[in-house]
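Bench notes, afternoon.
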Amino acid sequence: MASLIPWNEFEAEYAKNFPTEKGAPAKSFRMALGALIIKEKLGISDRETVEQIRENPYLQYFIGQLTYSNELPFDPSLLVHFRQRLGANLINKVNERTIEKIRETTPSPPEKKKDSDEKNESSNRGKLIVDATCAPADISYPTDIGLLNQARVHTEKIIDILYKSLKNQIPQKPRTYRKKARKDYLFIAKQKRPSRHKRRQAIKKQLQYIKRNLGHIEQLIDSGASLISLLKKQYKTLLVVTEVYRQQLWLFENNKQSISDRIVSLSQPYIRPIVRGKAGKNVEFGAKLSASCLEGYVFLDRISWDNFNESGDLKAQVEAYYRFTGYYPASVHADRIYRTRENRAWCKERGIRLSGPPLGRPPANVSKEKKKQAAEDEKIRQAIEGKFGQGKRRFSLNRVMAKLSNTSSTAIAITFLVINLSTWLHRVFLCVFMPLRPNNTCFEIENKVQLYLKQIKTEKLILNRARGYPSLLLLVGDRLFSKP
């Protein structure tokens, strides 16, 4: 796997992050990217990643060390800087170049041509699958009352800091009513299902507390207190609290439920609510991703912290496919939201078949061929859903632990890179350890293994259900243990 990733090709681009020659020597691109790949693959923390590299000689070789060393390769805090320096764009370039090398060294899957395809020969080849998902961030579920309570607590801390510098000038500290405000918050927060009227009353009280605290902060500044005494993080939090107060006050006065650029986290104010309409999760809080899948490998096409309509990315994704392969895809398999009139007309001009039924009223009678084609298109489209599931269940796409917008984007891009490396490793394993006949390729072996696993799963289900019937149990046991 180490020989597959083009380390040297991106060393110069990574070196642009170090414009001067002062300071300690920087770590290499291979060490930075390799450490992030190890962390994502093993699903461990930054500290555990460094410890694993120190103990394992194979991991040390993977990050570019020539000899084994029992010392820490670098401090765990450097992983944060690695994520900041690499960036999602550079990781995507590495991902594309890696897949290019994979496609150069492995045969492409054979495509079954139908009679209709032979008559209408076209330069378009391959299948492109596109879809979008959301990568939730590591934040608590936001509520208006909870967000206002956090904002109030931060304003109280800032008042305490600013008052220290004016303690000799102002004998009495401004009153914040923090104990009473805390009781008012807990009174509504501990109720399982408070009424709408009670929630509005609680929100109104918290807004009044924050308004009083912000007024005290302005008075302290006018009296001579300086914001220089605040830490950089505290000053940013004060700006966020001011914007949260403005948004919540507008929502309360206008009796609305939504507002543009709504802040749902004080520590990560760039996160926005993403309305997806999924079962069990109508709204998610994180980054929205637009991805495409080619021959089992996934490309991260777009990351945005604001909600967007993924149908607008279809043209760019198809053009990216053309730049990557040199030809347009024969078919694009997408969800219903992509099947707009504009996208259909654009694909038709280029000879691309967009999956799904035509727009308009459905016909009364649908032929068996169209039904079969629709079922095959849906099976092909489900491949990218499996990639999303792999990223969220096996890797960290379901809960992005990074706290900054740029480091979160890098972590998401690393996840897609590791998914592709795992796919390549799985196919290599099948080609090496499975008997390879002259007419079989790695892709055919992989399909046969998946069918075999489905067959085993079905037979186990039958066996569990047949335990209550002795005669059926004998038949199933004979089926399971008989030679093929």
